[in-house]
Amino acid sequence: MTEHTHHDHHGHDHDHNHEHEQEFITLVDEAGNETLFEILLTIDGQEEFGKNYVLVVPAGVEEDENGEVEIQAYAYTQNEDGTEGDLLPIDEDSDKEWDMIEEVFNTFVEDEEA
């Protein structure tokens, strides 16, 4: 009697690391210095605020002694042709936007640690 081992290659071999694919973006500051940032998270705020948000950290930066890295949040608009537009600073007085970003980020962190 022969044993049939059934290798199912349809569905169990998926690479589950897609969501961890690192995306990078280069930002230029006022002085013209280019810094490479890693995109941590993009947030769709279209319905509520008419724009999307992106959270970035400087690429290759080690956490400091408190285990913290400076995370920067920007709003970005999409151009009508679907390409990403400019990153815009988020209005510091816009509590609603910051609250939403913080909430999404906290959820993201909890998911990462789970």
TrEMBL record:
Alphabetical list of InterPro entries matching this protein: UPF0473 (IPR009711)
Kindly name one Pfam family recorded for this protein. DUF1292
Query: Which residue ranges does the record annotate as region Disordered?
Result: 1-21
Name the family.
Belongs to the UPF0473 family.
Instruction: List, alphabetically, the HAMAP family matched.
Output: UPF0473 (MF_01448)
Q: Name the chain's protein.
A: UPF0473 protein Hs20B_07910
Q: Which organism is it from?
A: Pseudolactococcus insecticola
| High-level lineage | Bacteria, Bacillati, Bacillota, Bacilli, Lactobacillales
